[in-house]
Amino acid sequence: MFGFENMKISSSDATKPVINLDQGDPTALQEYWMSTKMKERCVVVIPGWELMSYFSDKTNVCWFLQQDLAEAIKALHCEIGNAATEERYIVVGNGSSQLCQAALFALSSLSEDKPLSIVAAVPYYSTYEEEASYVQSQLYKWEGDARTFNKPGPYIEMVTSPNNPDGTIREPVVNRGGKVIYDFAYYWPHYTPITHRQDHDIMLFTFSKIAGHAGSRIGWALVKDIEVAKKMVQYLTINSIGVSKESQIRATVILNELTKSCRIKSESFFEYGNEKVKSRWESLRWVVDKTGDTFTLPDYPLAFCNFFGKSSSTYPAFAWLGCNEDKDLESLLKEKYVLTRGGERCGSDKKYVRVNMLGPNKDFEDFLNRLLTIKYPNCFEGIPCFEP
User: Fold this and answer.
1) What backbone phi and psi angles, to 5 degrees, belong to 239?
2) What are phi and psi of 44, to 5 degrees?
3) Which of 76, 178, 183, 286 is most buried, with most CB under 10 Å away?
4) Between these two residues, 38 and 311, which has the higher pLDDT value?
5) What DSSP element (H or E) covers 219?
6) Each residue of 219-243: pLDDT tens digit?
7) 119: Cβ–Cβ under 8 A, 6 or more apart, which residues?
8) How many CA atoms lie within 13 A of 209 on its CB side?
9) What is the spatial distance between Cα 88 and Cα 232, in angstroms, rounded to a whole number?
């Protein structure tokens, strides 16, 4: 599952650490939360007698949603200006992955025609195909690339913007009156300019990629249609009987701190995150330039960010690294003990890989040095070719 299973390491390389940049573990943002002020502000203490019931609010469509979390979500979106929350139902889930499955269930079960076709434009988030195919549901069926999809009848298109894995800004491709699920996991100002407030029927967000707290497993959907929201809650009820209240309480505290930090530039999480990710992208582009025409990276246009009040570029959480030669780049990097996600898993070509840009500092620096050794074999760890 994680790419270690088939690795053969010779005795001479047995001590060389494997760098896992396949998984999107956002630990690079941990430093912010370790600062003295945030250590004090984000402590959560829960007495043993609290939060014992399954229910948060029996009158709410999403009966396991903590009201304080709902208010924190609305406040942050209002502060950032990235999504409309008015006249919408908030559905909380165990990460946006569970919410994606809930949305597929909701839309397909409410459709008269089954199975519904599920599509996404290449390169797409690899987990979409896995989620749509794993349970072999009779409600929906994975049909692959939205750009080549020509099957008649209803469909659901997954749109991730900025896109995972290539960071591009996306819109629907099919445009034949089907349903669209918008995944805005990365539509936050540390990754991309906030150009307008998104306003769609189903929008997914995740706590993991905003603040880096992937272990809390919190995501939410902003849903216009009450029947869709009810069906999503039905799925979540059957699948996990709701969402941990402890995780919701922690997410509430941290989301509120994010909102407060927006008002003090020196404490702004999004200023910090933007500088962090921007710095890594500048370092990676420097290394790619040094390798001549060996590797490629996408270019991103400047756009005016309403949140920062200035023009800026996109600095995605993942790099869509390409190889100019017709090589299996995932295998090539694995020879350097670097694990990435191969392009074929994203519906694309083996000459591309997805690289996590949010891993630990040392992993990222070691990755840059190992990337250089593909072009310059005399570079080796211990005598870095890249000086951060």
Assistant:
1) -75, -40
2) -120, 125
3) 183
4) 311
5) strand 219-223
6) 999 999 999 999 999 999 999 999 9
7) 143, 144, 145, 146, 149, 155, 156, 157, 158, 174
8) 27
9) 14
H runs (alpha helix) in the chain = 30-33, 36-41, 67-80, 95-109, 126-134, 207-211, 226-240, 245-261, 269-290, 329-334, 361-375
Beta bridge partners of 202: 223
Asked if residue 155 lies in contact with residue 117, where contact means CB atoms within 8 angstroms, the answer is yes
| Average pLDDT score over the chain | 93
The count of other CB atoms within 10 Å of the CB of residue 309 is: 7
Can you give the pLDDT at residue 15? 63
Quick check: bond before 388 cis, omega within 30? no
Helix H segments across 90-179?
A: 95-109, 126-134
In the block, residue with structure tokens 């270690």: 4
Rounded Cα distance between 117 and 119, Å, is 7
The strand pair at 219-223 and 295-296 is best described as unpaired
What is the C-alpha to C-alpha distance for residues 179 and 142, in angstroms, rounded to an integer? 14
Kind plus residue range of the DSSP H or E element containing 93: strand 89-93
Q: Is 14 exposed, middle or buried (0-12, 13-18, 19+ CB in 10 A)?
A: exposed
| Contacts with 91 (C-beta within 8 Å, 6 or more apart), sequence order | 61, 62, 65, 99, 102, 220, 221, 223, 229, 232, 233, 236
The Cα angle at residue 34 between residues 29 and 35, in degrees rounded to 5? 110
In a 10 Å sphere around its CB, with 0-12 CB exposed, 13-18 middle and 19+ buried, how is residue 16 labelled? middle
- The tens digit of pLDDT for each residue in 89-105 reads 999 999 999 999 999 99
